[in-house]
Amino acid sequence: MRSPGSRDPSDPAAHAGDEDSTRLRVTIRAARRDDGPALAWIRTASWRAAYLDIIPARALERIARHDASRMARAVAHPRPGHALWLACDHGDTALGYVWLAPQTDRRLPFLGEVIELYLHPQWQHRGIGRQLLVHAIWSAIAMGLQPVMLWVLADNRAARTFYEGLGGIAVDQRAIELGGRVLQTVAYGWHTLLPLPSLADVRGPLASP
Ligand SMILES: CC(C)(COP(=O)(O)OP(=O)(O)OC[C@H]1O[C@@H](n2cnc3c(N)ncnc32)[C@H](O)[C@@H]1OP(=O)(O)O)[C@@H](O)C(=O)NCCC(=O)NCCS
Q1: Which residue out of 67, 97, 120, 124 has the highest number of ligand 1 atoms within 8 Å of its CB and is therefore the one to mutate?
Q2: C or N terminus of the chain, fewer CB within 10 Å?
Q3: Is pLDDT above 70 for 206?
Q4: Does the domain spanning 28-207 belong to CATH 3.30.300.30?
Q5: What distance in angstroms lies between residue 26's CA and the mean position of ligand 1's atoms?
């Protein structure tokens, strides 16, 4: 795999920031042991951009300092039932990832939880997050983790719009404390998969072989 920051200018994905670039052809594959640095690169950049106005800066930086070890552990020592998939361009550069796990909160009527879904800011709004989430939710059936839910910060309006657009229903809310600030979180669940598009639908013609 290429180093996370490197871009081949002849690679169409390198032009994802161009005005006229829209959807990207991505491959979704299971994470490997050597993906830790790429995952941490995505996580840190995505958190800094998405939570700048929500989470206190010092808390954000404290969390970012642990991203490398957290993601290295996730791929080197995956916990039972956990699955982590990357969306990669055709040069195998990781652009985003989704992390699915068994539900640990027995009070919730869900078997699976999407515990992380992050796109590098450079690759957001290209239809990749939709492909990753749909992939994870459909995969949850085979893994015995359906129905699935996830938590999102209430002030993360963009992500909430994204989940609602894919049929997620707000099913719970809780307050958490982060960096000395009390933050509201909302749970979205997919009790029924009827509103969820198929992976083929969200990939569109670009993903065809
Ligand atoms: C939220 C996130 C995962 C969505 O992935 P994405 O690849 O950017 O989203 P997609 O391009 O697949 O968008 C699919 C649909 O979601 C909606 N959507 C996506 N981003 C949106 C935004 N910023 N505002 C409003 N709607 C949005 C749109 O309806 C879009 O459909 P369209 O392409 O037909 O307009 C990604 O933007 C991200 O990583 N954000 C920062 C981190 C984050 O908030 N993660 C979730 C933590 S719970």
Answers
A1: 124
A2: C
A3: no
A4: no
A5: 16
